[in-house]
Amino acid sequence: xxxxxxxxxxxxxxxxxxxxxxxxxxxxxxxxxxxxxxxxxxxxxxxxxxxxxxxxxxxxxxxxxxxxxxxxxxxxxxxxxxxxxxxxxxxxxxxxxxxxxxxxxxxxxxxxxxxxxxxxxxxxxxxxxxxxxxxxxxxxxxxxxxxxxxxxxxxxxxxxxxxxxxxxxxxxxxxxxxxxxxxxxxxxxxxxxxxxxxxxxxxxxxxxxxxxxxxxxxxxxxxxxxxxxxxxxxxxxxxxxxxxxxxxxxxxxxxxxxxxxxxxxxxxxxxxxxxxxxxxxxxxxxxxxxxxxxxxxxxxxxxxxxxxxxxxxxxxxxxxxxxxxxxxxxxxxxxxxxxxxxxxxxxxxxxxxxxxxxxxxxxxxxxxxxxxxxxxxxxxxxxxxxxxxxxxxxxxxxxxxxxxxxxxxxxxxxxxxxxxxxxxxxxxxxxxxxxxxxxxxxxxxxxxxxxxxxxxxxxxxxxxxxxxxxxxxxxxxxxxxxxxxxxxxxxxxxxxxxxxxxxxxxxxxxxxxxxxxxxxxxxxxxxxxxxxxxxxxxxxxxxxxxxxxxxxxxxxxxxxxxxxxxxxxxxxxxxxxxxxxxxxxxxxxxxxxxx
Length: 595
Ligand code: C2O
Fold this sequence. Notes:
- The chain has 595 residues and is mainly β.
- It is 9% helix and 32% strand.
- A hairpin with a 5-residue loop joins strand 20 and strand 21 (429-433).
- The structure holds CU-O-CU linkage.
- The site of CU-O-CU linkage has 11 residues, from strand 29.
- Residues 83-197, 207-370, 449-561 form the Plastocyanin-like domain.
- GO terms for molecular function: copper ion binding; oxidoreductase activity.
- InterPro entries: Cu-oxidase-like_N, Cu-oxidase_2nd, Cu-oxidase_C, Cu-oxidase_fam, Cupredoxin.
- It comes from Rhypophila decipiens.
């Protein structure tokens, strides 16, 4: 991080925010000192052994086969609407969940049922929406997955859709809109599913959302990017921790009259001296790879995405968009008056080494205070000296070993999928994934077609049918100079290998490969993954919002015979009827792939 990060700390050392929490983040309290620690589990209805998960463990229970049946329902009501806030001091139009950015925390125990009613109150102008619950397996409920044109029709303005699913995995995740690049406009929020942990800790600090931030609306960004001769390189304006950061308003473009306030306020965290804390890191951004550190502190990683791992210690955690890491931090550096910078740097990993990240201000900071530290003073700690210019890969697969071991099964089918960027006939720069630049049909989700026995799809939907295969291997070739966080819905895939150039056929620890739901493929490199089938239709795409908008998206039909037999609730069809009725009288301008 070295030099530049030091400069930025000087620029942004104001820790007493000039704007109210309401003005920066609406109804969200994340990143403030009044945001409470989380309980280690929610107490109602515990099963035997005092824990809601009874005797199930993270090291001895196969979570894909067994989870607690708590019978507990966690109900949430979300209203999505437009709003005006200034997360970093620059005021802009955003989209909010219950008036908050980031949106409200969803919290449950492993095995609880989560029910969320989403009301689309996005008006002036109206937009469709859908909300995706990132990383959940949706066993037997693929229609609750929230991918437009894949599992459902968009929720019509003024209407609601009620999502209902079991939290059959536990750990840290997030929800986000999955309609166009809408989530980068603010429809994101954290989710914590409490579960067993072999690694012990005292305090659950809760979610820490890391996200690149743009001063333009997602609509304007996508339209510019996908205009004839538009640039595929989108540049973020800032980097946020729990939705907050300062901005240097002198950098606002001449002629831009939006109010901008310097030193709007950064996030603050309190740690208890001598105690071990669990931090739940989430890259909820649109594009940037995050490099997270806390000055002077080691981080012990205990989970990657929804997969508990054998603990390993590191100074920096790398997260591509969509990825999470649960880390333990012990407050044992200095006395109880100590304060430290928490940092998250957008990494310049698109292109050659030393290419700067596509960001005007790539360095996010937050203040970490031990018990007795004065929270009106800026920390003075020094950054770890770790260069991040060339890092665009996740931690070495040799060190990310799942706590619950699963040997790699034999693959019964292998699919190679190439990533490339090209210009179409109108000079629009788009992405191709396995030969196709995807465009969704909002009116006709793949899942509903498949359920009716129709398995012939237009090429531009980019659907692959894997029939009844018992384990499917995917070899991703990245023929582009950018790294991509590859995400498969409905599964934790095995990561067989990852590296530059072509795959040499070797597998890292086939006795127990890393599993997760997002993995970075490096520039001009390969990523090999494999999944055991979960019946349904599942999106497999690059999680960079701009790349998915540009067509970098596919859908997998998995176990079609089972899909045909599914009894999909009529509310799913009803959402389509509402959408088709709405679009018969309102023109929906599908500015991108749709997802
Ligand atoms: Cu975080 Cu397609 O999802």
